[in-house]
Amino acid sequence: MGTSKKRQVHNLRGENERATLDRYPSPRISLELLKGTGELDDLKNEKIVEPASGMGHISKFLEANGFKVESSDLGDDSETYGTGGLDFLARTERCENIITNPPYRQAIEFLKHAISITDHKVIMLLRLNFLESQSRFEFFKQFPPAKVYVISKRLPHYDPVHKEWKSDASFSHMWMVFNNRDRIGATQLEWVM
Ligand SMILES: C[S@@+](CC[C@H](N)C(=O)[O-])C[C@H]1O[C@@H](n2cnc3c(N)ncnc32)[C@H](O)[C@@H]1O
Asked: Which domain of life is it from (predicted)?
């Protein structure tokens, strides 16, 4: 992982760690929808970095579909998929592509950093209301996403206490795609479900 800095997380364990790190996995249906958009088609011969891999829901799906994935996460417990203890925001090594569902509280920092170190696509699962707010206005003016896929059906969400999926999150989601090889300047909006 090159110059990525290791952060000490040993004082964070179990549910506390999960809550602190926003460790909520991406449901499979969200990944099927992403695949259905065709956005992954030109990544088959490229490397994908999942820098907040959590329990590996995105990484395992991509690997099962034939993609080369490098997985890491700041968390470092027994459920962590890939290399634990790596802070993505400290990563300086460049990536061909990044696909993740970032920690909600640091989503804008993840996006800005991902765009700055990625050569091709940055694809992130985000809450739909991430599109709004004055604080993100300048960012979106400077970096309009190439595509936004609004997920019209509410996604299931994971209950980490009972370790089970529950129906319908209380908020909506989208896949946001940035393409550093082809900055088209205007965002295309599509709906999927
Ligand atoms: C919403 S979860 C998503 C997990 C996984 N990407 C998925 O979609 O199933 C966010 C993940 O970000 C990780 N995380 C939080 N801060 C991080 C950081 N600075 N660097 C790397 N990972 C971080 C958390 O440990 C957690 O696993």
From this structure: Bacteria
